[in-house]
């Protein structure tokens, strides 16, 4: 793995801003949250996903380290096989 893994993940996530995504987040104790939304924006340490939950807009933020540790999975909505934030 390269030394700057988090910066590579950040670049990958940043290239999908504005796209519809599916988020799968491990909440601990066998609780998994699955939501669909739009990758709204990226910041130096976190990215924000905008979710429309029954006419209630919510914004969820996750760190790039969450993607690295597989606590969070981010996939394109139209292509479920394409994971975002995976560095090979």
Protein topology:
Elements: H1 5-14, E1 20-28, E2 31-42, E3 46-53, E4 56-63, H2 64-68, E5 72-76, E6 83-84
Antiparallel strand pairs: 1-2, 1-5, 2-3, 3-4, 5-6
Short structural summary:
The chain is an alpha+beta fold and 88 residues long. It is built from two helices and six strands, in the order αββββαββ. It has a single domain (5-77), classed as SH3 type barrels (Roll).
Architecture overview:
This protein has 88 residues and is an alpha+beta fold. The protein has one domain (5-77): SH3 type barrels, CATH 2.30.30.100. Helices cover 17% and strands 50% of the residues. The chain is globular and about 40 Å long. It starts with a helix and ends with a strand.
Described by the principal axes of the CA atoms, the overall outline is globular
Spans of 5+ residues with little confidence (pLDDT < 50)?
none
Kindly state the percentage of residues in helix.
10-25%
CATH topology: SH3 type barrels
Rounded radius of gyration (Å): 13 Å
Order of helices and strands: HEEEEHEE
Query: What CATH architecture would you give?
Result: Roll
> Kindly state the mean pLDDT as a whole number?
90
* CATH top level assignment: Mainly Beta
Task: Kindly estimate the percentage of residues that lie in beta strands according to DSSP.
Answer: over 45%
Structural class call reads alpha+beta
* Secondary structure tally, helices: 2
Based on the model shown, name its key terms:
88 residues, alpha+beta, SH3 type barrels, 6 strands
